[in-house]
Every structure is written in structure tokens, then in C-alpha cells.
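#structure-requests
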Amino acid sequence: MVICLQLASSAVCLTSKTTMLISSLAKLPLSCSRIRSISSTRKRNIIITSSCSSGGDDHVGSHVIELSNVVEQMPKHVAVIMDGNGRWAKNRGLSPQHGHRAGCKSLKNLALNCTHFGVKALTVFAFSTENWKRSKVEVGFLMSCFEDFIRLEVDDLIQRYDTRLSVIGDTSRLPESLQTAIAWGEESGRSNGGLHLVVALNYGGRYEITEAAKKIARRVEEGILGAEEVDEQLFEQELMTSFMEFPNPDLLIRTSGELRISNFMLWQLAYAELYFSDTLFPDFGQADLVQALACFQRRNRRFGQRNNNYNK
């Protein structure tokens, strides 16, 4: 049995055996707003402390979540569907633009936290091929926000934290200034050996698979490749993630309580562990990531094989 814990809002942890929904921890009331602090101990435990007030009473509670620092037990590649910026802003009476700005700040913190916990690659779903259906004002702001993020925040990640940036998706439709910023960011951190931050911009899983199929079909038509030579390994070489050391995510995190993958990395997520959190992305902090990583470490990843203790 896997138990996934989250304060102030419930989190969903899906496994092959059970799904558990937990909406409180350490008998804290649901009105507790957020986790206040995190500290590490020598025993590799994470101490999560939360305090809040309700009806004039102060409530303080803490819980220890075990998180192994063993490299083999940490996901090498984490993918995140960053959802909830708009709702975060609406809940505060703000415009969607404020939510997107807060989301960019949260993204940088997420990259720093992944670096801290030894994650090798982080792929984030920033703008889908379907997001063009939004208003021109919002799309234009998002494009400007992405450019500012690369020029300012990614530059800091590259210079100070050895981060490498890559962008996947059909970038040809993006504004020219954003394309220039992407090329600059990718080149600036090309030799870096830290976290590989991959941003999916104008990306769609079906589009990626269709384009890969077209490339292979052309080679078959030209007689360069025989149909019988087409296999999974060859197909993966034509995907947008083929340049990555770890192209397939071990863990997918989706924020905001939605329970779907929304056309994101459809091929690569075949054996990923799924984790869904009610936390809106601008509020998704280190404590939320710790809980997701701890949940991942409790999973029994069999990849189609039998558990050795299945008949015991």
C-alpha cells in the first residue's frame, strides 16, 4: 500500500494496487493554508511543519516523511504539467497575467529544488498546441513571459547552478524574439552538467508522434529503410526527446487537482509513475515536491514483470 500525504489540500497517489486520498495530516484542520518549513535530518527524513489559526485557535503539527537520498531511488527524470495559474489568480481577484508571473517564479523554484534533490532532468509543459485557442492577449503575454523567464531566470540557473536548457515543440510558430531567446539559452548552457531543464513550448504528444511517423515513412518511401526495420528503438530516435540522456520520465506530476495527462509526452510516459496534487502550480513548493518524491520511492516499479513476492 502506498500512502501519499499532503497538507492543506489532498493529493492523489496512483499505484497498480491502490489509490488513496488523504486530505489531512497529523489531525490538522483543513483550513491550514500551507506548509511553513522543511528541514533535513541525519536520518534522511524530511520534517514538515505546518501552523495555522482557525476560529482564534492556533494549530501546529508536524510529520516526518522518509525520503531516501540514494541515487538509485530518486527519479532521474521528472515531468510536470504546470496547471492552476489562472485559478490561483482568480482566487485572489487578480488577472491571469498575475498567475502566469507567479507560475514562472514557481518554475524556477521547482528547478532549484530538483537540483537540490539530485533529479537529473525536469521537463515542464509550458504551452500546448491547443493553447493557441486562448485569447490573443493572454497568448501574447505568455510569449513575453516565456522570453523574460529565459533571459532572466534561466540565465541565472545557467550561470549559478550549472543548469542546461532545452526546448521541445514546434518553435517555428513562436515569436521571433522568443526563438532568439531560446537559441541563446540553449547555447549558453549547452556544456553544463547540472539539471537538464526541458521546456515544452507549442508542444503536443500526438503532434510529436505524428511527426516522427512522417520522418520514418519518408525514409521507407525513399528506400532508405525497410518497413520491417521499424521498431520502438528506431521510433524513439525520431522523437523530440531523443537527445536527452533520460528521455522517458520516471515520475509525472500534475498540479491543480486535474486527473489527466492532456496530450503530454504520450509515448515517453508509458511507464511513468503518476502523481496528482490539488496544489495550484504557483503554490507548489519544496514540501510538495518532497511528498511527490517520497510517494515515488514507495512505488513498486515492475515494468510488466511479476513481483518476487507475488506467490508468497
